[in-house]
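Backbone-to-sequence.
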């Protein structure tokens, strides 16, 4: 069970965490934890330095107005584009240059390490670029033939 807390949003959209008998923590961030396929479970409230302060095991277990506030904040601040098509992956000099279409438009990015492409339990992949941005890639079976050919050797 999650300890009681509230989130107060200021005029700039920054959140302050309030908990009974503890000092308020300003400028907290909300992050969804894996698995992404269960977005209403395991939401982390973190300090601006990244330290986890509260882990919400399930949004279903908290007050409806607080749940709506958290969901709205996450929708506005979470940015995980879904790769819908892979045009090309150019492998050279130890890195991969990806040219893709996403649900947010075309993108081109560099993947430094093979470990930056992670298999998720439901068959999808997370792809982290050299700048730390994360993309979601559908399972191989759900990709079109050209996209599949572009990524098969990497996965």
């Amino acid at each position: 069970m999650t300890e009681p807390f509230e989130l107060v949003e200021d005029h700039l959209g920054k959140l302050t965490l309030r908990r009974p008998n503890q000092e308020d923590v300003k400028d907290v961030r909300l992050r969804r934890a894996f698995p992404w396929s269960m977005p209403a479970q395991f939401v982390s409230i973190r300090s601006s330095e990244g330290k986890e302060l509260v882990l919400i095991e399930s949004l279903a277990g908290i007050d409806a107005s607080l749940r709506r506030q958290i969901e709205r904040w996450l929708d506005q601040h979470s940015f995980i584009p879904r790769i819908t098509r892979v045009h090309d992956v150019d492998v050279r000099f130890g890195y991969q240059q990806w040219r893709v279409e996403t649900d947010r438009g075309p993108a081109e990015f560099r993947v430094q390490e093979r470990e930056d492409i992670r298999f998720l339990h439901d068959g999808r992949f997370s792809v982290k670029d050299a700048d730390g941005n994360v993309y979601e890639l559908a399972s191989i079976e759900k990709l079109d033939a050209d996209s599949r050919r572009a990524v098969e050797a990497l996965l």
